[in-house]
Specification:
- With 558 residues, the chain is an alpha/beta fold.
- The chain has four domains: 125 residues, NusA, N-terminal domain (N Utilization Substance Protein A, Chain:P, domain 4); 65 residues, Beta Barrel (OB fold (Dihydrolipoamide Acetyltransferase, E2P)); 102 residues, K homology (KH) domain (GMP Synthetase, Chain A, domain 3, 2-Layer Sandwich); 215 residues.
- Strands 5-6-7-9-8 form a five-stranded mixed barrel.
- A hairpin with a 5-residue loop joins strand 13 and strand 14.
- Helix 12 crosses helix 16, helix 12 runs parallel beside helix 17 and helix 12 runs parallel beside helix 18.
Length: 558
């Protein structure tokens, strides 16, 4: 019988494909539990099975004492030393206490516990097996279709495919073979819960590894994946070995490799693009099949890229409901703003006009300071006291500093305008095309690489030089504020010296500006000098009164 017991355990291990030590542990726990239920109370009991003979032994842990008062929990020192010569009073010793009638009731209890532990062992083994396969693709048969999930049989285990992980365009039938991605594996009281997915982007990665040997062996690397399951996906790949075409390897001869994946995903379109360390080229590739004319990166604006495409390619670049642009953004990790060539040219012209306005404003400010400096330079220093001369000297320094600041800002604005415009003739032609006055259409310009190519280059060099419209408005405001502050400081110092200057009511740019400036300057200088010879203080006061209205008009004009 004893040998029969071990034979039965070995048979269970073989049938259930369990490790024998796990089953023996379950049997030992079951025997100890059965003994406690039928013979023991709150004693410390352990069971052991002799693997050679199959004999089951029960051991009770007892305390070593001088005088035994409770023989169920205590043992005398003499008896303890017979079992273990090293026993001492106060120690513990395991005493073999297998009952002679450890029979039918104990065996029945042991059987139930053994079966329970075997089921637990099977669940643990199943969990361990599929936990290692998390992130892989498994094949199963549709067992049951419910409104909220599909149950698949994986052989020894069952898995669920939730509705959220199903491709919307797919329908499932019982008995259908289906490949799915193991999204997660978790333990439950009823066994492992295996959740599958058909929409996970890594499912596409695993399918590519199966179909493309170059990806599996590491010759081609998948850099990133963007997927809208059931509709379209984009995959960026790069070759890790020279001479290997990463895109061609994935597509296969006549598209056979990629077509197998498309069929597995129920007709989902897959774009395979080449990854490039240069972000501009990578973003251009990500918008495939659309052709890209230019890419401008604005990293400080939160990783935004402005992409210029031909007018005829605009809808293709954006895609149906923005899908192509959206997938390209997910693939690259950049926000992508797509513009047509004609739209980019129009924005280029608008920003050139803005730079021209800045230049004109700087010219007007420069004229005012030049006029003030001229008046101060022509004044006879003999007519002023030492205190007035000091104030005048400080005022002249402020004016000179202001003039240099304005000139620096003006040159910066002119440089920006030059880079953007390239030439006035080209700009005029661009404006004519965009306004419809030219016989050429914007589309013809794009195809002919004409004026729009100029606008695109200007936009790349200056107009979209990492500064958006809001920043340009702020730039103009800061420049104007700096000029106003310097002008106010100069006027305050001149006022302390009781000297004011006059300007024209209207400051005209270009040719008119210089003529009027010279005329006003000559008149003011002659008047101040003539009156200063007889009545210096009265002359200064009158000059101040005459200059006040003109100065206010100048400030309002600016």
């Amino acid at each position: 019988m004893k040998n029969d017991f071990m034979m039965a355990i070995n048979q269970v291990c073989h049938e259930r494909q369990l490790a024998i030590d796990i089953v023996l542990e379950a049997v030992e726990v079951a025997l100890a539990s059965a003994f406690k239920r039928n013979f023991g109370g709150n004693q410390s009991i352990t069971a052991q099975i002799d693997t050679k003979s199959g004999e089951a032994l029960i051991f009770i842990e007892k305390a070593v004492v001088e005088q035994v008062e409770n023989d169920k929990k205590e043992i005398s020192l003499k008896d303890a030393k017979a079992i273990n010569p090293d026993s001492v009073v106060g120690g513990l010793v395991s005493v073999e206490s297998t009952p002679k009638n450890f029979g039918r009731i104990a065996a029945q209890t042991a059987k139930q516990v053994i079966l329970q532990r075997i089921r637990e062992a099977e669940r643990d083994a199943l969990y361990s097996a599929y936990a290692e396969r998390e992130g892989e693709i498994v094949s199963g048969t549709v067992h049951k279709v419910d409104p909220h999930q599909v149950t698949l049989s994986l052989g020894k285990a069952e898995a669920i495919l939730p509705r959220s992980e199903q491709i919307a365009s797919e329908t499932y039938k019982e008995g259908q073979r289906l490949r799915s991605y193991v999204a997660s594996v978790s333990k439950t009281s009823r066994g492992p819960q295996i959740v599958l997915s058909r929409t996970h982007r890594d499912m596409l990665r695993r399918l590519l590894e199966v179909e493309v040997p170059e990806i599996y062996n590491g010759t081609v690397e998948i850099k990133s994946i963007a997927r809208e399951a059931g509709h379209r996906s984009k995959v960026a790949v790069a070759a890790l070995q020279e001479g290997v075409d990463p895109v061609g390897s994935c597509v296969g001869m006549r598209g056979t490799r990629i077509q197998n994946i498309v069929n597995e995903l129920n007709g989902e379109k897959i774009d395979v693009v080449q990854w490039n360390p240069d972000l501009s080229f990578f973003i251009a590739n990500s918008l495939s099949p659309a052709k890209v004319m230019n890419v401008m990166l604005h990293d400080e604006q939160g990783k935004t890229a402005v992409v210029v495409v031909p007018d005829k390619q605009l809808s293709l670049a954006i895609g149906k409901e923005g899908q192509n642009a959206r997938l390209a953004a997910k693939l690259t990790g950049w926000r992508i703003d797509i513009k047509s060539a004609s739209e980019a040219a129009e924005e280029a012209l608008q920003k050139v006009r803005l730079n021209e306005a800045i230049r004109n404003r700087m010219s007007e400010k420069t004229h005012i300071f030049n006029l003030t400096a001229s008046i101060l330079a022509e004044k006879n220093p003999v007519e002023f006291s030492d205190g007035e001369l000091n104030l005048l000297s400080e005022a002249i320094e402020v004016v000179n500093y202001a003039e240099m600041s304005i000139e620096r800002e003006r040159r910066a604005a002119l440089e920006a305008a030059k880079k953007a415009a390239r030439s006035r003739d080209i700009l005029a032609e661009a404006e004519a095309i965009l306004s419809g006055k030219s016989p050429l259409s914007p589309a013809e310009v794009v195809e002919g690489e004409g004026v729009v190519e100029m606008a695109e280059g200007a936009e790349a060099d200056v107009l979209l030089d990492e500064v958006d419209e809001a920043e340009e408005d702020q730039l103009v405001g800061v420049m104007a504020q700096d000029v106003d502050d310097i002008l106010a400081e100069a006027e305050a110092m001149l006022s302390e010296a009781e000297i004011e200057f006059e300007t024209d009511e209207e400051i005209e740019p270009e040719e008119t500006l210089e003529a009027e400036s010279a005329e006003v300057e000559a008149e003011l200088v002659s008047e101040v000098e003539a009156e200063a010879e007889t009545q210096p203080e009265q002359a200064l006061a009158e000059a101040e009164a005459e200059a006040e209205p003109e100065k206010q008009a100048t400030s309002e004009e600016i």
